[in-house]
Amino acid sequence: MTAGWASMLAPGRRGAVGVLCGGVLLFAVDTYVTASLLPSAVAEIGGERFYSWVVTVYLLPAVVTSALTGRALATWSARRAYLLALLAFGVGTAIDAVAPSMAVLLLGRAVQGTGGGLLAGLAYALIRTALPRELWTRGSAAISAMWGVGLLVGPVLGGVFAEAGLWRGAFVTMVVVTVVVALGVPAGLRRAAARPPSVRTPFPLLSVLLVGAAAAVLSVSGLAVSGSGADTRGLVVAGGGIVVALALLVALVAHERRPGAARVLPLATFTRGGPLAAVYVTAAVLIGVSAVEAFVPLFGQRLGGLSPVWAGFLGVALACGWVVGEMTSASVGRGRLAVGIGPVLGVAGFALLTLTQSTGAVPLWAFGLVLAGLGVGVAWPHLAAGAMAGGTAADGTEDDGEGDRASAAITMIQMLAVALGAAFAGVGVALGRDTAASATLLYGGMGIVAVLGTVTALRAREAA
After folding, report:
1. What is the CATH number of domain 7-195?
2. What is the C-alpha to C-alpha distance for residues 423 and 46, in angstroms, rounded to an integer?
């Protein structure tokens, strides 16, 4: 049995938990708040043809900076790195708040993503020193749960300000919250500040370029099948982009396996017979299949006859299952069982969704989405804790910088999986001859991907 939740709030820990969760919540809320207020922003400042790029220019720098978390901790102290990440996020948000044109808004989004990716990467890296090892699972659950909270808070925050005709106010609110989180950093990360600095290693230029290129290709692939781009040409571009991105990721692995290579992944990833590679792949599968949530409101309205409000509630069913699964699983423990059963729950949820799309049975859809979300949540905190331990040797010692790489890789892989899942989902939806066929292809395809997770989980559970 793991330590209780009360231990997370013990003196000397609650500040760190609050600061780290606050940083991730900022990143998560901003991801969703912008989508809800963007129509109002476009109506005022124009630039509708760049609508889809608002998300793309946010995620691209986020992927790159999350990969450089270990480098950041080798260059700056923990508190300075976190404050710099908050500064970049806050400056980018402030630019969005005063943006007179879409070009300026995109600039702000890029600066936001730079800070947000580092915030998310630092959260997992610093939880290793802010909390004792027996609380890593709960800490991972708390951090990851912020994405579920963001999915609930973001659209409401953006919608309220947009409805009032004050869409800039949402960004101003985010700036204020960023300042509040920053004020808690000196005290909250006091223990993390005492950690020995990572040894500076050669800059992993080639690895960063390969990661960035894969993220860029996946983003273009997603754009190719969004909106009016869902034609034959768009499908070819998107399908080819997915293949190219996978090839770039294979090249990344091949490069990092080389002796002496400057890496963004921990060396244990490439240890023959070790579980860490399976941990990352299983995590990527679980996060990737959750990309279906972007299309749930559409299917709810067109196939289930739901109003936009109720379709929106259906859209958060997966996130609700995710959060409930995380909190329950982290409380119960039993990491090996949780990692093994998580992908199985995902397969079951997607199977139910696939078989019921033509029936209009909304309650069954909701149950299937919750089941799929539970699959992600049940396994995730144990996968994250297992990854954080990836830089620790059997005797309890840690190779220089390996723990930071192992922890930061969680966020990098999470974001790449989101981009890959979104591109894959877009292709599935675009291939359907009608909405029902699109839904069936999407859920069925994601169910097949989830099967891969059940296989890799057999090895990944050894790290739990």
Report:
1. 1.20.1250.20
2. 26
